[in-house]
Amino acid sequence: MSDKAEHRRLNIKKSFKEQLWLPPHHEIDHRGNPILWKLEDRWWLIGLGAGGSQDTSYGLKVSNLEKELCDLVGICGPGQIPVAPPPVVPGTPPPPPLSIQPPPAEIFIPTESPVPPPVVPQPSPPAQTPDPMLVPTPATIAGMPSNQPEAAAPPPTPPPEPSPKAPPPRAPSARRGKEDEEKDDEYEMDLKRKKEKEDAAMYEDEDTDILISKDDYWFSGIDRNGDARQPTGKLTPEENTERLRTCGTRTLDRPSADGKAFEVREDSFQKWLSFVEINNAQNRSATGGALGTMISSRHFLTSSQVVMNDDKTWRWNSEKVADCVSGQNHLDVPDEILGHTNLFFRVCVRRTNSFCELTQQIEQSVKRAVILNYCNHRTQYFDNTQAVMVAEVVVDHTPNRGFPCLVD
């Protein structure tokens, strides 16, 4: 058994719906190793090692996880990238049906000098004899003959002369003192306190609990120490597009031409090949592990054997895994177990080996892990192969690390 990871070229014996059968190459309790395929100068991840029998090594197909990875972590194939439909411009609704044809519509366009409408002469009314109308005059009102001359109009009333006395001057407004300004400040502060009390009372009346969860705090961009963090969670469409552009471009240092194994050099796989381990609760030593393959700037694929035994008990505390509920498909790894799960960038298989102790390692914490399709695995298959687990680390890496593409 080698102390370092190795890579070799093998032929696929058989391909089934969920599995690949390969010539025997696995070692006891070794799962999660990447099965790569080169096409058009790119490396594609087609499966993960899943143990095997004496004459056959098994691999779990990655192509079966296309929808799951797209839904859970935003790692989508070219045909899965959602494209927003073009905006629909609402058309002018048709007019309601009319029983009578409406007259042509007139369009009024305002101008600077609008032309007045033409004057249409109106027909003259029939001639009528007007009734005599009495026009009152001063003579008839005073009982005098109407042929008397009219009295002269009274002279206009002269305007009032200005008063020789000037009005008293207006008293100047009282000057505001410092005490008045302080009173205004106190009044504004009272209004502010009153507003705060009203807002607090409004939330107290709500029948809703407001909870800031660990995930909300983590996704806010600030970690528990107050330091700014890089993006985490599902890939954005832009990040996934960048992943598709840069994946699979790193060349292996010594690709084997036959089944002979070559040890993995640090300058070959160290950018995207890792080892995932978990400790146990008794002595805090490593109790489970598997190789992990980077598939995005912050996501890795590995085997569920990192956190779970073949008998479906947790490696951390040996407790039985809870049964799936109706409609459940995937299994989220509990936070208690994630707190003791770490990912290492190194080329050695055993951390206790002297070579590994001398090799520089980059250790990262696992933020989230999901065992894909755990609830749909048949027990006899799970005992032999376990399942694929996707893990998310807390530190975002640059996309151009040469990790393989995912076959779809």
TrEMBL record:
Q: Please give the Pfam families that the UniProt record associates with this protein.
A: DUF316 (PF03761)
**Region Disordered, annotated ranges:** 86-200
Which InterPro entries does the record match to this protein?
DUF316
- Compositional bias annotation for Pro residues: 86-105, 113-135, 152-171
Chain intervals with Basic and acidic residues compositional bias = 189-200
What name is this protein filed under?
A: Uncharacterized protein
